[in-house]
Automatic annotation (TrEMBL):
Pfam families recorded: GH3 (PF03321), GH3_C (PF23572), GH3_M (PF23571)
Lineage: Eukaryota, Viridiplantae, Streptophyta, Embryophyta, Tracheophyta
PANTHER family, A to Z: GH3 DOMAIN-CONTAINING PROTEIN (PTHR31901), INDOLE-3-ACETIC ACID-AMIDO SYNTHETASE GH3.1-RELATED (PTHR31901:SF96)
Residue intervals of the GH3 C-terminal domain: 310-428
Single GO MF annotation: acid-amino acid ligase activity
Keywords: Ligase
CC terms in the record's Gene Ontology section: cytoplasm
Protein family membership: Belongs to the IAA-amido conjugating enzyme family.
InterPro entries assigned to the protein according to its UniProt record, in alphabetical order: GH3, GH3_C, GH3_M
Ligase as UniProt keyword: yes
Originating species: Gossypium armourianum
Protein name: Indole-3-acetic acid-amido synthetase GH3.1
Domain of life, per lineage: Eukaryota
Length: 457
């Protein structure tokens, strides 16, 4: 689809994540971490179509700062050879841009002198970079000149002028990042090539240069045994007497939505992946699917997936801190704010303060932010602590009556008063504007939540 990719390199920001152990002592890690650490990757034969700017040592460095720093340095040094820029998910590529915004001065310094910043301490990485780096004052001047400009619009094509496309997943929850990617890349095509999970590889996009909204993934029937649970948002659910009827891969119907069910070679049996897919067509007999959304996911910034029950629990735990101030949370909703890099969770709170003389202070509300983060699942906390892929959680306190106004607005647009439920997550612009215009104070989590690679039992 893109000619000449064998004539240059790919700048891919690839990372390994910390491994964890299950309570039974088994090693657990995401699929890409397994892959990068495997001999398949480390000793891959030379392939002119897959030459990366990042050396293996940089990709495999467990410290995310050192890994990103050296990958960026190599990408800058090879800037004319770079033909595509990518990361697994769109959020990862934006994090790299943010990293460049914060670190271009040190990076330029290293380029100028051909030396490596002392913050990179990993011995094998230092040794490997020692062989790659060479002084290039002209390149250093160029990087300083471009990065010190006020506007970063089109920065990707300014620094890597031969980039033909971005290789990142922008379907599903990642679609929220498309406008920002377009801003930084001047609207370069975005190729979503694959649909996969740690449990199983699912499918490929056979038309990778299509628009993000038109992406369909063709399921590869040899990857697992695929079955589909018809998804009907209006159904009351399944009961013992009327169990769900699973549909085989060959029997799915165009236009219908299904939940993906897999039986894998590794031993998962009729495992519910949690993804909702819509059939868009067939490639030969293999159905093609549009990724609709993840089931029950309210908030997602990176690989975190927070559902309604988790958010509810987090709000409950945090609001305990308000008791001594005779204050309670009357209503709440949430928003995944991806305007900041990294993105962060925003929780809107309407409070009932019964004793105005003793209302909760900024400090207390900051502690509420942290308490909420402590309640989130381990993938969220890992994103905050180890991967730096999620920013501090924010509480925006809105003035009294705001949620009633929200309801009035929904009713004015046709919602029924009987059926109205406060949305636990919002992203519709008029609603966001309404909420933001009623904010009386904002508070950010002051510290990192607790996280270790050992799983909580
Ligand atoms: P994980 O199990 O953490 O590796 O994440 C797998 C999940 O990421 C899938 O079940 C999907 O929800 C999501 N995902 C993976 N690939 C895509 C894609 N191409 N488009 C949208 N979501 C995706």
């Amino acid at each position: 689809y893109v000619p000449g990719l064998d004539k240059g390199k790919g700048l891919y920001f690839l990372f390994v994540k910390s491994e964890t152990r299950t309570p039974g002592g088994l090693l657990a890690r995401p699929v890409l971490t397994s892959y990068y650490k495997s001999e398949h990757f480390k000793t891959r034969p030379y392939d002119p179509y897959n030459v990366y700017t990042s050396p293996n040592e940089a990709i495999l460095c467990p410290d995310s700062f050192q890994s990103m720093y050296t990958q960026m340095l190599c990408g800058l040094q090879d800037r004319h050879q770079v033909l595509r820029v990518g990361a697994v998910f769109a959020s990862g590529l934006l994090r790299a841009i943010r990293f460049l915004q914060l670190n271009w001065r040190q990076l330029s310094q290293d380029i100028e002198t051909g030396t490596l910043n002392q913050k990179v301490t990993d011995p094998s990485l230092r040794e490997c970079m020692g062989k790659i780096l060479k002084p290039d004052p002209e390149l250093a001047r160029f990087v300083r000149h471009e990065c010190s400009k006020e506007s970063w619009e089109g920065i990707i094509t300014r620094i890597w002028p031969n980039t033909k496309y971005l290789d990142v997943i922008v379907t599903g929850a990642m679609a929220q990042y498309i406008p920002t990617l377009d801003y930084y890349s001047g609207g370069l095509p975005k190729a979503c090539t694959m649909y996969a999970s740690s449990e199983c590889y699912f499918g490929l996009n056979l038309n990778p240069m299509c628009k993000p909204s038109e992406v369909s993934y063709t399921i590869m029937p040899n990857m697992a045994y695929f079955e589909f649970l018809p998804h009907d948002p209006n159904s009351a659910g399944f009961t013992r007497d009327s169990p769900p009827k699973l549909v085989d891969l060959v029997d799915v119907e165009i236009g219908k939505e299904y939940e993906l069910v897999i039986t894998t070679y590794a031993g998962l049996c009729r495992y519910l992946v949690g993804d909702i897919l819509r059939v868009t067509g067939f490639h030969n007999s293999a159905p093609q699917f549009h990724f609709v959304r993840r089931k029950n996911v309210l908030l997602s910034i990176d690989s975190d997936k927070t559902d309604e029950a988790e958010l509810q629990k987090a709000v409950e735990n945090a609001s305990r801190l308000l008791r001594e101030f005779n204050t309670s949370v009357v209503e709440y909703t949430s928003y995944a704010d991806t305007k900041t890099i990294p993105g962060h969770y925003v929780i809107y709170w309407e409070l009932l303060v019964k004793d105005a003389a003793n209302s909760p202070t900024d400090d207390v509300l900051k502690q509420c932010c942290l308490a909420m983060e402590e309640s989130m699942n381990s993938v969220y906390r890992q994103g905050r602590v180890a991967d730096n892929s999620i920013g501090p959680l924010e509480i925006r306190v809105v003035r009294n009556g705001t949620f009633e106004e929200l309801m009035d607005y929904a009713i004015s647009r046709g919602a029924s008063i009987n059926q109205y439920k406060v949305p636990r997550c919002v992203n519709f612009t008029p609603i966001m504007e309404l909420l933001d215009s009623r904010v009386v104070s904002t508070h950010f989590s002051p510290a990192l939540p607790h996280w270790t690679p050992e799983r909580r039992r």
